[in-house]
Amino acid sequence: MLPGWLEDILEWLREHFWIAFHLVTNTPQPNIPPTTIVPNSRKEKRKQHAMAQRKITKESSSDDFWVLESDIKTHVSYVHDDGKEFIACPVEERRVSKEAWLESHEAHARYIKHGFYKVRHLKVHGRRINDEVELFLMEDGNETPGLRKDLEEKGLTVRLYVPQADKKKYPSPSAKTQPEMSPIDRCIAALKTNIAENEIETDRTTPYALLGDAGMNWETRRKKVLVLIVQESRFKDFFAPPQSEHFTSRGCDYKVFGTYSDDEVHWRCTDEEFMSFFQESRGYYVECMYCDDAKAAEEREQEQERKERKAAKKLRQQQQQQQLATGSQTNSFSALEDQPDAEDEAAEARAEAKRAKEKAKRKAQQARKKAKDEEAETLAADETRKPSTFLLTSRPKKKHNPSSVPRIFGSAGQDDDPAGDESDAEDVDEEGAVCSLQYYGDNIEDMINVIQAAQGERVKIKNLN
C-alpha cells in the first residue's frame, strides 16, 4: 500500500504525462459481459469527503464533467464459457474540468492516429456531462463492447459522439468553380501580362500600340511579337483609308496582325495565326520586342521647340545689337527682349563661367611668363656688364710706414654699399700707393665719394676706361 502523498504524485503524473507501458499480450477483447462502473480514484474520494464536512452536496458549477477511462494496470482475468481466458479492464469515471472535457475527443483521436494506445496504460472510451454520455469510436471503428448497455441500465442517456464541423478562422472560398479559360483567352492574358511588365520596367504607359510580326527567334524556334507604341494621332491615321497591313519603324517594314488599346487586344488575322505567336508548352508564353515610337516623337517635338527658342533668341540678340549700333533707346531694346528660357539661361551661365575661368587662366599664364622673362633679362644684363676700372694713387706721409697701405677694400658687397653694388680689388701693392679698382656699379660718383671720405685727400682716382 502506497502512502497518500505518493498516490497524489502518481495521479498528477498520469494526468499530465504519457507513460509508455509495453503490453505483454496483444489479444483483442472478446464480446464479454458489460463491465461495471467503479468508484472514482482516491483523489475524488477525498474531494467528496471534504465536501461532506463542509455540508456541500454539489459544486457551484451547474454542470458536472467526467471522462470514461480504463487502466491496463487494473485489468482482471475473465474465463469465457468455452474455456478461453481473456483480460478485461474496468471503465472508471474521472471528474475533469470543462476545458479537459472539451479537449478529450481531440486527444483521443490523436492517440488513435499515432498509435499511442499501444504503449499507453490509459485509454479514453467517452465522456459524460451530467446525465448524458458520449461514446468514442475505438481503434477498430466501433464503440467499446457492452459499455452502452451498462450505462443505459444506470439511467444515463447514451449517444455516439458526432464531431462538429471545424470553424475556420478565414471563410472558405466560394464553392462555385471558375470557368476554365480557353486557349485564346490564355494567349490574351499572357500578352497583357507582358505589356504590364514592360510598363513597370520603363515607367511609361502603353495607351496605343500596334502588334506586328518581328520574325523568328532561332534559339526557341518561335515567333516574336513587335509591340510598336504610338501616339493616338498615328494610331488613328493607321486605320484611316486607305488602310494598310504594314508599317515602317526604324527603316524596317512589319506586318500588322493586331492592336492594343484601352487594355484590350484585337487581332486582324485568324485565331490560329494569332495563337502561333504563343508557346503552349510554357503556359502560353509570348516573347515581345518593344519599340516606343511615341517617346521618339515626343523627343523630336522637344528638340524642335528647343531649336525654335534658340532661333528666336538669336534674332532678339541681333535686333538688340542693331539698336545699340544705331543709338536706339533702351526702352525699345527692353521691349524687344523676352524672358529667356530657364534651360537657355542655365546654359548661358555655364558658358559665361567657363569663359571667365579661361580668361583668368590666360592672365595667370601671361603674368608667369612676364616674370620669367624679366628674371632672364636681369641675369643676362649682369653677365654682360663690363666693370669700370680706376687707378687709385695714394700720397704717402713724410715718414713712410711700410705697413700703411690704402685699405682698398678687398670687396665691396651689399653690406658695404647700400645700393647693393660689388667691387673687386686687384694688384694691391703693399709697399707703394698705386692700385687698380674694378667697379660693377652704375653710380660711379657715389663710389668715389665713399673712397675719398675713407682715405682723405691722399687718394687720387683716375678712370682708365
TrEMBL record:
Residues 414-430 have a biased composition (Acidic residues). Residues 356-370 have a biased composition (Basic residues). Residues 301-430 are annotated as: Disordered. This is Uncharacterized protein. The lineage of its organism: Eukaryota, Fungi, Dikarya, Ascomycota, Pezizomycotina.
